[in-house]
Each structure stands twice: as C-alpha cells, then as structure tokens.
Amino acid sequence: MRTLISSAFVSLDGVVEAPGGEPGYRNSGWTFKDIEFLPEAYEIKGREQKEATAMLLGRTSYESFSAVWPDMEDFADYKVMPKYVVSTTLTEDKLVSNWGETTILRSLDDVAALKETEGGPIIVHGSASLNRSLSDAGLIDRYHLLVFPLLLGAGKRLFSAADKDTQKLKLVEHEAYANGLQLNVFDVVR
C-alpha cells in the first residue's frame, strides 16, 4: 500500500488558506509576511520532492499550481511526477499540457484504490477541502506540518469540525527554527 502524505503550511490556530498569496483571503501570503526566511526551515519541501512518487491535488489547488509550478525551478521534480486531481467537475480539456501525466479521480474511493497500487509515497499539497475529506475518511497516513507562529483567525482549516472518533498520531520528526517555525511530522496510528 502506498503512503499518502499531507503536507501543509499551517498557522498555529489551524489555518491553511492562501499561504502563498492567493487572492481572496484577508491574510493572503502569510507565510512570507513578517516571518524571517530561513532556508533550513523549508528543507522538508525539497525532501518531499525527492521522496514522493506522485502528487494528489484538489481541483482548486491543481488550477492554482498548474498555472505556475511547471515553469518554476524550485518545483522541477514535480513536473515529471504523475499527478492525480480529485474533482467531480474538472474535465480533461482543462488539464495543462506542460506539467506531465495527470489523471482525474472522481471520488475518495478512487483515492483509496490509488493507494492500493504499486509505487512510493503520494504527496498532497494545498487542497484544504480535499485534505479534510481524506482525513475524515482515514486515508491520510502521514502529516508534514510546517507550523507558523501566527494566529490568523478566520480561514480554511486543515482539519474538519466533523464529530468523529479520536485519531491518534505519532510524532516521528520535529524541529524548531530561530524564526519560530516548527516542523512536525506525524504518522497516523492505525
């Protein structure tokens, strides 16, 4: 079974919305405003590209990332990696042609089937709604959380407010950085 990894920039109060400056959110771009940039705090991002063998995205994140990531040197390893987009509305004609093989999945059952295939880890970037659904369905195996020392208040959250059984996590890696960022890597305990 393939490992499904959720990778997120998250505020201390759980917000994941518009970390890179996406329009429409009051605190858009919060990952680089008032936070000193320390390259070592982002080492996990390079490691993710080297270790992942596929990327899973929701439609909104796919549309945002596919407009810029294919031409960014920082994300070169993702260009050739197979991508899967979970969407009930996206059509083949809306897929970009310069970002490698992309497959549309229509349901969480399709994601569960993908996890059963041969291959290495699958990484999820962005995709707040998809992350909540994957977590609620018990499909996420690991979390890579880069926690920012900010309280943003309103905004899309990484985790849903669904009433569900406790899900235990095991901290397998952690680091604190001089700029206040914290890396927390958790495995989901089954």
Automatic annotation (TrEMBL):
<dbReference type="InterPro" id="IPR050765">
    <property type="entry name" value="Riboflavin_Biosynth_HTPR"/>
</dbReference>
<dbReference type="InterPro" id="IPR002734">
    <property type="entry name" value="RibDG_C"/>
</dbReference>
<protein>
    <submittedName>
        <fullName>Dihydrofolate reductase family protein</fullName>
    </submittedName>
</protein>
<feature type="domain" description="Bacterial bifunctional deaminase-reductase C-terminal">
    <location>
        <begin position="2"/>
        <end position="183"/>
    </location>
</feature>
<dbReference type="InterPro" id="IPR024072">
    <property type="entry name" value="DHFR-like_dom_sf"/>
</dbReference>
<dbReference type="Pfam" id="PF01872">
    <property type="entry name" value="RibD_C"/>
</dbReference>
